[in-house]
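Aggregate trends can hide what the representation actually does to any particular protein. This step matters because it turns folding into a mapping between discrete strings. For completeness, the protein is quoted in full, as a sequence line and a line of structure tokens:
=====
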Amino acid sequence: ALLICMALCLLVGLLNGYIIATFKMQPFLVTMAMSMIIEGGYYIYTKGIAKGSIATGIRFISEGWIGIVPIAAIIWLVIWLVLSVVLHHTPYGHRLYITGGNQDASRLSGFKSKEIVISAYVLCSLLAGIGGLLLSAYIGTAGFNKGFLWNAKMPGEERTYKEWIDSATEESQI
């Protein structure tokens, strides 16, 4: 199941990157549309109800400790270290920074900016999938909007984030 989840994440990142790099579409719109497509697929597949629970082996990732350090923290530390080395000490990392700064300049410098953009979306999607798996392990169930805090209470407030943003928007329009 984990491999299928990661494969789907890679596929989503590949599709997003391909659409953005090939058709020069706005990244925000492409990723938001893909999010809506995935959410619709999730609701069709589950009929709107998350079922089951997370396997104990995966649950151990969020609840387990090695000494005084949580396993989830070790996982994120390893990911951070690997990405830091890749981004700061490899040609790919330098090309990624250059392409992110100015895609046309990187293309004129001889870099294959289309491939770099696609790989960035694939990597981002993979990391989002890992984050989702760790969050599901922590919560104990999988669901589409478990990490979305729109309806969560503001710290020290009785309002949700949505209510707070709505009231701030109304005040700014006066």
